[in-house]
Amino acid sequence: MSTFRGVFVTGTDTEIGKTLVSAILTKAWNAIYWKPLQTGLADEAGDTPTVRTLAGLTPNRIIAPAYGLKAPLAPLAAANLEGMTINPGRLVLPAVQSPLVVEGAGGLMVPVREDMLMIDLVQQMDLPVVLVARSGLGTINHTLLSLEALRKRGIPVLGVVLSGPENPGNARDIARFGNVRILFSVPQLESINETVVSEMSERVPPFHLCQQQSSQ
Question: Is the pTM of this model over 0.70?
Fold first, then answer.
């Protein structure tokens, strides 16, 4: 059995709940959070302050982004607008003792550099994936395609997190056809705050058990 240093949180789409799931996992596993590539800083403060607040993190459990880019675009496009080239040497896992929760930007096929997609970064970091997917219509296709892409690269999948109104049929079919476990579900929430994240974190299996049950 492989022992992993943490997980890489990605999604089947953008604006799908990766940051909330990252906060829940960081809280549940007493982990350290890192979003190496942050875009959209012209419009918002970014995901790192959000996770810090939601998970109630002390400064030693936050690693600042390697790149903070202004435009709300894929990292490659946002970096190009600023005349910047993303250096993969800055996207190396930091040496820490606690588990790492690394949050990606967008989905697996989002361009990071001219010669790198987000899935390449996952592979470079040698982390298993927690895949965040919508619970509703269209999710089976998007989720199974993402799982197939990961497995073609030999990237382990820790599990899928479904986000949105409960849909037992979709959850069942993703687990069955994707040969994957549903790690937990995030319902449609009226408000998102530290209390909600704390309650949700109690539903997450311990990190060591998740490692034992990851699939390829």
Answer: yes
